[in-house]
């Protein structure tokens, strides 16, 4: 079985909508008949902020999940293997497509959310998420062998001190600032986070990540952020390379389901990028789970700019077989 050029475009456009740290889009793809390989693009890693490529592999997992969603819409059942060939370590995920039939129930219903989901860096409405919906999102994480821990008021307060420590380190480590400056700010049309997507500055202390911290990005307004943010930590029992990919699969399933209910999300991952602070977050949620992503989630209060994506053609490796 082979897939058409139009189907390739649909599949890889979907994959490219996945979130990634600083929107580096650290993926490339190879297609051989019904097999799609998701490869790590070593030119798009963050060796200072993410030296083990943990968050890179989370992004690759998210891209793989989007491929599965698009394939389901096209009528393909999918199976996947993580790190399928030790001799080719750049192939992180291999996805196998079944013969085409009809749209696959479940995953195909999320296809319409791919273009709606984005990282929202503005204030949320001060309104709760229903317990039923929080449970649905937790179940979405569990479907991909991950856990979503919702923080209570005391845990949020403790997390706040960890985030402040991370923010302080962020603006005092020159290597990180230089690396981040390659991807953050300015006018960008295919990668990174442009000024228009940085979101407003908080008018008072708030649980956000200001990616522009330590640099001057003009023309940003201010806003009052929610006083009681809704925060969840996504983690896995294991902390190895395969678990990081599974965290990415879980992340995107959670985010697409959240989008389908008009929720928006952003990240407070500075608190898990420094090993000592990540260990504090692990203690916060219970030491049976390794934290990978800290998600601020809620109903958006205003519109913000979108991060750009590369054309799918630039992510495809075309090779002779």
From TrEMBL:
Highest taxon in the source lineage: Bacteria
GO MF: oxidoreductase activity
InterPro entries in the record: Nitroreductase-like, Nitroreductase/BluB
Descriptive protein name: Nitroreductase family protein
């Amino acid at each position: 079985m082979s897939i058409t050029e139009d189907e390739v475009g649909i599949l890889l456009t979907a994959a490219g909508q996945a979130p990634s740290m600083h929107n580096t889009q650290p993926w490339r793809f190879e297609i051989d008949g019904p097999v799609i390989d998701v490869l790590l693009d070593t030119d798009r890693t963050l060796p200072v902020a993410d030296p083990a490529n943990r968050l890179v592999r989370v992004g690759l997992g998210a891209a793989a999940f989007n491929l599965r969603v698009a394939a389901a819409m096209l009528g393909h059942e999918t199976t996947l293997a993580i790190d399928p060939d030790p001799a080719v370590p750049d192939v992180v995920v291999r996805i196998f497509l079944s013969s085409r039939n009809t749209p696959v129930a479940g995953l195909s219903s999320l296809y319409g959310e791919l273009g709606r989901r984005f990282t929202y860096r503005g204030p949320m409405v001060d309104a709760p998420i229903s317990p039923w919906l929080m449970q649905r999102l937790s179940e979405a994480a569990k479907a991909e062998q991950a856990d979503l821990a919702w923080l209570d008021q005391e845990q949020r307060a403790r997390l706040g001190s960890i985030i402040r420590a991370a923010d302080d380190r962020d603006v005092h480590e020159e290597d990180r600032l230089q690396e981040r400056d390659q991807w953050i700010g300015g006018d960008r049309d295919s990668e990174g986070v442009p000024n228009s997507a940085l979101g407003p500055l908080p008018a008072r202390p708030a649980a956000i990540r200001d990616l522009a911290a330590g640099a001057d990005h003009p023309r940003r307004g201010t806003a009052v952020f929610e006083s009681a943010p809704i925060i969840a930590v996504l983690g896995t029992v294991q902390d190895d390379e395969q678990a990081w990919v599974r965290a990415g699969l879980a992340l995107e399933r959670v985010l697409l389901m959240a989008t389908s209910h008009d929720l928006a999300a952003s990240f407070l991952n500075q608190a898990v990028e420094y090993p000592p602070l990540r260990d504090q977050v692990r203690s916060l949620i219970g030491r049976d789970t390794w934290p990978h992503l800290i998600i601020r989630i809620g109903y958006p209060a205003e519109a913000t700019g979108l991060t750009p994506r590369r054309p799918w053609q630039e992510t495809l490796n075309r090779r002779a077989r």
